[in-house]
Amino acid sequence: MSLYWETMETMEKLIELKNINKVFKSHKLISVKKDDYVAVNNVSLDIRKNTIFGLVGESGCGKTTLARSVMLLDPPSSGEILFDGNNIAKLTGKALHPYRSRMQIVFQDPNSALNPKMSIYNCMKEGLVNRRYPRDKIDSKIKNLLDLVGISPNHVNRFPHEFSGGQKQRIVIARALSMEPEFLVLDEPVSNLDVSIQAQIINLLLDLKDEFSLTYLFISHDLNLVSYLSDQVAVMYKGQIVEIAATEKIMKKPLHPYTLKLFSSAPGKDKKELYEADKNYTSGLPEGYTYFPPAIDSNLHLLDTGEGHSVACYALNG
Amino acid sequence: MEFVFFIIRRFLRLLLTIFIISTIIFFVIRVIPGDPALVVAGLDASEDDIQAIRVRLGTDVPVAVQYGRWLSDIVRFDFGESMISGASVNKLILERFPLTLTLAVLGILLGLIVAIPLGVLSAVHRWSFWDYFGMVYSQMGMAIPSFWLGMILLLVFAVKIPIFPLFGSDSLKNLILPAIALGFARAAVILRLTRAAMVEELNREYIITARAKGLTDRMIRYKHALKNAMIAVVTVTGIQFGYMLGGAIIVEQVFSLPGLGRLFLYAIYQRDFPLIQGGVVFIAVVFSLVNFTVDILYSVLNPKIRIS
Amino acid sequence: MQEKRSDSTLEIKNLNISFIQGEKEANALRGISLSLKRNEVHSLVGESGSGKTVTSTCIMGLLPTPPGRINSGQIILNDQDLLLLEEKDQRQIRGKEIAMVFQEPARYLNPTLKVGDQITEMLILHLGMGKGEALDRALEIFDLVGLDGGKRILDSYPHELSGGMKQRIMIAIAISCNPAFLIADEPTTALDVTLQLQILKLILSLKNTLDMGILFISHDLRVVHDISDWVSVIYAGRIVESASREKLFSDPKHPYTRLLLESIPDADKRGKRLQTIPGKVPDAEDIPGGCAFHTRCPLAEDICKTVQPETKEVGEGHSHTTACHFIGKQWKQWKN
User: CB distance C108–B301 less than 8 Å?
Assistant: First the structure.
């Protein structure tokens, strides 16, 4: 048993998802076929305190829907969300209020996250007033937060359009921090940014995590990025988690054929590999793997292969 | 197959719309305070007279029964008889409808003939003579009331230079001037929309692709941009056409044309309840049919709509 | 289709373009030179606003003037300067000699025209084919780009096809007239990694079968690493470094290239801080004097603020050029 997993296993869980489903019902009055859409299918996972949980998958696989469900922006159709041991999945209104500020989300596009008609000061003040932060301390709080994310506190009265994309994302992060959250969902937070800016934001996020003991759910399609910063990785495919493991493990020995395909498709390899890459995922399969599940199958469950490395595959399940 | 289901879905929706509208009409008329029979009969009618009118109107039975009758009337497309002339409401409406339909079709055609070329020209050559001309036209079209335009047209083209008849409604020639008066303002609306839609389409990315293919400006404009621009134009044209069918009351009045508009106007003057009810339902049905047609046309132009 | 043409090149020489907005003048390209050879992928890498798209738009003759203004430069194909051609003659080049593939196929295909129409119109226009002949040819091209179900696809509208298929169609349209050169502007940026790999492989195989020269425009150094023969790095409207793929990735000389490469996260850097480049790409209206990168450069000294560095040969022959006063000098690690 690896030392890494031993330490992971002893860490407290902050978020536990149990059998989360999200179904979008068809709204057609008269419909030829039943077309309810299962976006998230029976997802269970644990996120441990002060770790980064990476969620990867291709567009349409349900990773953003899952994130919105966890945040209760679109509550799940069924399943439990344990936040620090309390099931919050069915909470609404006042009961949910204390949890709202403990978890925050940062989206891909900072432009749609900031109201273009509000100064940065007012953008940040809103949330603080909402959570009844002492009025006389709001000013210094905002300035401290902006300073923390690398925005000059002198620019507090500027409007979003006066900042670059990277700066806007910093402001969005500062605003999320103003709620003093324990858990941050980061949904492709650097995908819209230039290469030279991405590294700045990533470093910032890592610093903030250490400083405030934050826990991240980091959603991305960029495997290189996820494998750089996550402690654990889950691979999502057509609404299901097909594989979960500690990052080192999954990088070294991916078990699910889809994970293999995804990892071998990531750019940045030798050209010879490029030609070979998608042959690899069939030839490189562990023994006994024959079947690649093409569609969602609720009967397929994650099976623990040891040390927290779980995989959903017929070859293993059968 | 997809397309057939789409049409069926839209048709069922059309039926539902008509049902809802007729229900609303029924209850609106019943909810208005006062007994229609009293209104029809006048102040010094006897109780017997009023009762007789109630029987004729069908208001002597409980509301639920009335509603049942009303629905069955609509299914059979039978709205009873006019209180004034005693003729069947159906017959009255269908007698007048061809004239209004011809007028509306002519009006919308004239409008489209002016609006689409001018709109496209304005969009393609922005800030040119044609663009300014189009702007002036659309301002005028929206500002000039149709009754005034109708009177001027009569004065100039029927009185001073008598190339069109002053009265009458039996030949197509009689309908040209009213159609112009009717179509003038519609054209202004369609023109503005055509220009806006065309400008938008010409700025879309697929136009860059078309240019990168080395296509001529002509092909880019008329093969690629125009069809996409027409999607928006069809919808608005349909709505405009629906209004015109509902009765071009003022234009029919100015040109003394015995169309639907005038029929309903008199029905209101004379408190001819069955005719008013029948008329409103008829207009609603026609409007829904126009919308249905627009939906179908829209989906032919815009293949995306069929699956969503 | 398989016949090989003479060994032509596409030369972009000292291209200088600005955009005029009222009083302001934005220097979009400040003397770009690129050389494209048949059967070679030349990548142009840079961040947003660095001038990548202006370059491709200008090569295609699609630069709107005004607001754009070509201050100087030449684009030479078959001994002709494309910039001097009449619009009518430029149209003969577009699509036929130089074709282009765009980033988001969903937006760059006409939503209301059938795929068949969108591919045959070019064959009819440029090659004078009849409709029937053009349709047959379209089916051949579909085979070439790996689209199965030929006839059915001809009759489809773009939205009825998946993202990967749409990009294949974009590529099919671009190569339909057998162009000598293909400009691919971020052709895989909108695609998922598994699709991206397929499209990259397709582009490489087409390059070989059709003997095409490809200008591959991207912001993603990893993708560029996979596909290129030659790489040019653009910053604020100038090429700062140009080299064969092997040289550029194994021995980058310009500090911008070196920093970019080091800032890319991957599993090997776990636990270490990422290298960063402070600040941001300058706006085209406000490009710093001297070396445009000096405001963000760890090597910058006084000379960098005033003197624009010449483009120098650093390899043997013409294998590696860069524009820096302190080529290859080491810098101390610093925190952002």
Answer: no
Of A225-229, C114-118, C129-133, C281-285, minimum mean pLDDT range: C281-285
CB-CB under 8 Å, C194 with A261 = yes
Annotated domain spans of chain C: 252-336
The pLDDT score that the predictor gives to residue A28 is: 58
**CA C226 to CA A264: how far, in whole Å?**
13
Does the structure show a pLDDT above 60 at A111?
yes
A40, A18 contact by CB (below 8 A): no
Give pLDDT tens digits for C206-224.
Answer: 999 999 999 999 999 999 9
Best of C204, C219, C220, C270 to disrupt the A interface (most A CBs within 10 Å) is C270
- In this prediction the pTM is 0.82
A145-156: buried (b, 16+ CB within 10 Å) or exposed (e) per residue?
A: bbebbbbebebb
Give the domains, in start order, of chain A with CATH numbers.
3-26+44-256 (3.40.50.300)
Please tell me whether residue A44 adopts helix, strand or coil conformation. strand
Q: Please check whether residue B255 is in contact with residue B271, taking contact to mean a CB–CB distance below 8 angstroms.
A: no
Residues 6+ apart with CB under 8 A from C293: C235, C236, C240, C255, C256, C300, C304
Residue type at B63 in one-letter notation: V
Is there a contact between C290 and C308 (Cβ–Cβ < 8 Å)?
A: yes
By Cβ distance, the residue of C47, C196, C226 closest to A269 is: C226
Return all residues near A155 (Cβ < 8 A) that are at least 6 apart: A120, A146, A162, A163
* pLDDT digit string, tens, across residues A256-291: 888 888 888 888 765 444 444 444 444 444 444 444
Binary contact (B13, A32; C-beta < 8 A): no
Put simply, the answer to whether C111 touches B227 (Cβ < 8 Å) is no
Domains of chain B by range and CATH? Answer: 97-261 (1.10.3720.10)
Q: What angle (nearest 5°) sits at the alpha carbon of residue C149, between those of residues C147 and C151?
A: 110
Q: Quick check: B303 contacting C, CB < 8 Å? A: yes
Q: CB–CB of C62/C244 below 8 Å? A: no
What is the structure's pLDDT at A3?
58
pLDDT tens digits, residue range A48-88? Answer: 999 999 999 988 888 999 999 999 988 999 999 999 888 98
DSSP state letter for A142? H
DSSP notation for A198-252: HHHHHHHHHHHHHHHT-EEEEEES-HHHHHHH-SEEEEEETTEEEEEEEHHHHHH
Candidates A198, A202, A221; nearest CB to C193 = A221
CB within 8 A of B232, min separation 6: which ones?
Answer: B193, B197
User: Would you say how long chain B is, in residues?
Assistant: 308
d(CA A312, CA B284): 57
Closest-CA residue to A317 (of A299, A308, C137): A299
